[in-house]
Design brief:
four-stranded antiparallel β-sheet, Chorismate synthase, AroC fold, 10 helices, homotetramer, five-stranded antiparallel β-sheet, 18 strands
Chain lengths: ~375, ~375, ~375, ~375
């Protein structure tokens, strides 16, 4: 299963094509739209999320709500395009407007301008922007529906915002509550603390990041492989997570904590009671590059939003003079968006692993094969 | 550039094929062997590292020390094979000997046995074993020689062993000293503390992990891309790192720390003085999925070795009765090996990114194109 | 460079995404539309080609007519969709209408129904249909513009229709005339003979195929590689050609004739006169899996259209009784469409080979590197 | 399933790695060696085939004759290496010896020298040589064993040598006889005629090519796909065939003949008698890019061997003066070798298609899934 995306931030639409879906998978468009709305939600978001109410339009690959086995293509229109058409249209437009030359630290602006031989960072940021992740949320939502048919679920929550950390560990069943919260946190007190932090940062023109935990429940053992390095499940999932804008770190299970402890406190002993099981899950569900049947546990670190209202020091590339970086967006934090995006990319990467192991051209075949796995 | 590896831990040899090398790259076999030796070094290693003194044999792709542009294949013989031939030979052998059925927590054993329909975990562990990384060290060492021709260097050191952490930050030039130390640490006092920890753990039959920092100096900006998620440099480098046995977390630049700080303390402001530069490098050299011209800084968390002399609780899969896990190896820690392996996989992944951007069939062309980059 | 396509024959649109285009390539939309129109032209076409006047809509990857280096996505709307919406829409629709159960020999119908677990071959043919090639013509037209910037041109003509064969050999410069002819043939007399044949076949409810020759002029030597089988230029170009609907054979240069002749009559001797050159081109411009600097010459055999007005014997899969195959389309021949499609897939595959060898992020870099090749 | 090969013609060994084999496939080494011997057989071969008696050495991926699911690596030693060591060794050697500068028409020599920046075509031909195909015969032989476990068989014969054509059509069961013949032809009279032709050409210092037919029996329908152009079975099989040295054309079923006939004489009508079947197989077993359950029929055209004893006109690249091309080899025809190689590449490409559709980690799973296909 492969997702190819296209589309600029203020262009006509984001476009995606998913190849490798089996036929006869029922597609729930409302659910995709719910995840698109969740990507736009969260305390600390700025103005744009109110302009766009993203919805998906499926263009091909589905008939009467069932997949055909052909490439599923979709669009998420940029409603803002009407306001930007004369500045960014594919056909002739006025590229002198809305130029961005005060390149923003923490963004692709400066490197992109040099690499792609541009003088206006708009030609870079339009694609480098995290708006692209709307297409990945669509892909992930469809992957989720494929996984759900097999009994596999992906969920998550925000573990910290800035230096406000929720220290608790939660059962998988509780995670879905997070989406009812303004910051997708599960500890109400910590969440109120985090909101205060964001209010303060907003007043100061500053921004915050956070830590997000993603979990997968119900996946059988043996996905990924120990036989070639490029097929290891942890490599693939963590690579997917690191491909999301603003993510600077990722860990599985105990993660960095595991590096500090002695082996006897880390490894999950094995028991048998009709089936094999563990009493602990420090491995985060992955051993030897394969799912081991326990919950998959991943955590990612998101850096603070790099566009600050107070403006960072930079250079204007039109004259190489010192300048204050432009404030293209005004979010203070986007941890909720990141949480949804990370669920999405994990779901998609997993669905790809599942479909590689199972093969199968139609959902009947896929289900039969999944159920036959030991 | 692509590295495909093969070979079991006690089989005849590890085999690797590198595709995509340009012609006329000078190969220094002694240097490859030095890295192979370093992979086997380090305080806390057990007996096997003394049996094998790994050396590489180049089989194809090189003539008179220069690459031909054809696939470079190589072997690293397993000297131990003579002792194992009758147990593991491809042709008929005695598979009743040296069976491993007390599957080891933290390893591929149990999952692998179910996935590949085996009754003896030897059929899994022989390939899942980290011995496979010797082939990746060869690949990485050759990639390093390609990078070095362009002025790019990869180095690193051990930042922590168990709970003993070196808190200092070092200039790139100092990192090479680490290889003169028994534990590849740069702070002598901390290293002695770490050695004591390992002695204590060894006495207790326990093990340790650690944190490794890898750095890349001299890479121009613009490697990787902000244009499609699958081409982002951080996703690719971190995926490569997570594909190494025992690695449970990875971060770029400030990494998880970045999630705690406000934006104004994280993003690296931009200055101009004939060229663009930064005074800080919290981004770890990667912005927008591309190298930004600063040093690339990566850190990885290695879990403690999962084979403990004191034996973890597990199940004997031949009868599903409780058992103590087998002690196939007796290392207490393998942080030095991991340090070399991580340098190697980072070097290889980078060389691949470089060769994708530059193309080029011979080193003259490659150099000319690299030098022409802005 | 990679082209991913999606879209069903009577669905909303065909969608394509091209990844790997450098920035700053000027896109000529009118030229793309001209090739789309040519794909729909030609003597012997049925009714649908009059309903649809295909035009491309670029959605992303281009601003002010210049590529951005980001994925270029595009749509070709199916104007016929309005008439089919209630039968094929992704959302709820009436799948009882317009079922096709009298599966057509020579099509994907029967195999597809079994593979994708369907009862209605409409769920197969909508994607298997050659309408999908409109997206490949767009991709090929853009690839052509990339190649043209380097001085490389792709052209071709129809060499035979049914048993009417044009025996002449033409200079590259004459090939473009073919598009002014109703059947894209260059010999006027043979073309009139072919038209008569098609009139006769139409009266009989029968169909014809033909042979198409594609040529490439101006490509420097050394594209493709002799170093790994998967990188050979002939393998890649012929694979691309065989991926086009209805193509049953392909040959390079002398092709099947070469099998009959002695070596001394086949191999193109080499001369030098300031540069290397040949007096013959029996190799069709490819030796050792690489372009040798001569014109690339490819010929493909197209089978007759498998949907016959007179109806072939088949089975109705709804009851497994004998039946006459449905006549979904009424073209007698589609050799002109095939000619344009083959030019397109050859252009795209070549552009991919070129971009792999040159790398390069922007057209300035690409041009400089191409010009520097020996 | 993927085969990566390495190795030069006079180097130490050819090396191959097969990734993606399931575990528990029984490997018959003797059978692999039989195919290697067949590759070296045939009337019209020169001296080298007597020096080398190729045998495979399996290095990894197999234990006690059963695959492990890990990469299967192998070597085919070049016995001639001992005579060439001082000229081609990876380590220091004497590159002044045995230089080839009189570049041979029809080979990679001239293009390769320019592309890889060499002055001696030995650095090109050592890899471009068809000796590389020995590794593909090993890969294909193992793929065959995988296919055979599913009841799928690949066979073939030589249909023509030069202008001597066997006009008959044979049942699949008769094809295996061909390997008992000196030229792998099935018509004894035609074969004697072909031998005479080769004798005459040998006396004249000239060479011949021929046409080879490859057939596949027992493959269920639905391999390949009609849903994306890159997944079509005909594209993949024909691409594989065109990747073999000296092949200049390929066709499926009626192939080029189909272009001449009317549709009603070409398409294979469908009947039902408890199962679907055809009375003809003009499609050669592939419709809509998928196997349709009939025999797969492929034919390839091999050009005459380009190294002629009588020497073609060429240029000496050391001084750009006219010269007679060097006679590195002295075969008159190699149609038998090509026949075995083409069986091998078809088998491997098919096995890959099968493993993509079925997935599966062990042979039990693979068989169960194959048997469950409709």
């Amino acid at each position: 299963m492969k997702l190819t995306t296209a589309g600029e931030s203020h262009g006509k639409a984001l476009i995606g094509i998913i190849e490798g879906l089996p036929s006869n998978l029922k597609i729930d468009v409302e659910e995709i739209n719910r995840y698109l709305a969740l990507r736009q939600s969260g305390y600390g978001r700025g103005g744009r999320q109110k302009i766009e109410k993203d919805t998906v339009e499926i263009i091909s690959g589905v008939r009467n709500l069932l997949t055909l086995g052909s490439p599923l293509s979709f669009a998420v229109r940029n409603k803002d395009y009407e306001n930007w058409r004369e500045v960014v249209a594919p056909e002739g437009c006025d590229t002198q407007q809305r130029q961005l030359t005060k390149v923003r630290p923490g963004h692709a602006d400066l490197t992109g301008v040099l690499k792609y031989d541009q003088t206006d960072a708009r030609n870079i940021l339009e694609r480098a922007s995290a708006r692209e992740t709307a297409a990945r949320v669509v892909g992930g939502s469809i992957a989720r529906q494929y996984l759900k048919a097999l009994g596999v679920e992906v969920s998550g929550y925000v573990k910290s915002v800035g230096n406000v950390v929720d220290p608790h560990i939660y059962a998988f069943e509780r995670l879905s509550e997070a989406k009812n919260h303004l910051l997708f946190m599960l500890d109400g007190e910590k969440e109120r603390e985090a909101e205060k932090l964001l209010d303060k940062l907003k007043a100061e023109g500053d921004t915050a990041g956070g830590i997000i935990e993603i979990r997968v429940k119900g996946l059988k053992s043996g996905f990924g492989s120990c036989m070639q390095y490029s097929t290891k499940l942890d490599a693939i999932l963590c690579g997917a997570i690191m491909s999301v804008q603003a993510i600077k770190g990722v860990e599985v299970g105990l993660g960095f904590e595991a590096a500090k402890k002695e082996g006897s406190k880390v490894h999950d002993e094995i028991y048998y009671d009709g089936g094999y099981f563990r009493k602990t899950n420090n491995a985060g569900g992955i051993e030897g590059g394969m799912s081991n049947g326990e919950e998959i546990v991943l955590r990612a670190a998101m850096k603070p939003i790099p566009t600050l209202m107070k403006g960072l020091n930079t250079v204007d590339i039109s004259n190489n003079q010192p300048a204050k970086a432009a404030g293209e967006r005004s979010d203070v934090a986007a941890v909720c968006a990141a949480e949804i995006i990370l669920e999405s990319v994990v779901a998609f990467a997993l669905a790809d692993m599942v479909s590689q192991r199972l093969g199968g051209d139609n959902m009947g075949e896929v289900l039969e094969r999944y159920n036959a796995l030991r």
